[in-house]
Amino acid sequence: xxxxxxxxxxxxxxxxxxxxxxxxxxxxxxxxxxxxxxxxxxxxxxxxxxxxxxxxxxxxxxxxxxxxxxxxxxxxxxxxxxxxxxxxxxxxxxx
Length: 95
Hints:
Blueprint: E1 15-18, H1 20-25, H2 28-39, H3 48-60, E2 64-68, E3 76-80, E4 86-90
């Protein structure tokens, strides 16, 4: 049963880690909202073939990559590995 306001998780995240730069640059709220969106299947500003690849990865396996642009203006990525063992929060320039 879904609780109103709480999205259903569609992505198993595994262990969640973040780069030191991401932790310094982003607020805890931005990170937690990004994780919540990523886990619910909201890929943020990912478009086109990358969005379709994420959607396929939900059922057929594969890496999932989301990008978020919070009000602070600091874009960040969340990447869940194909085996769902780890999810990493990082800034694009760290990739």
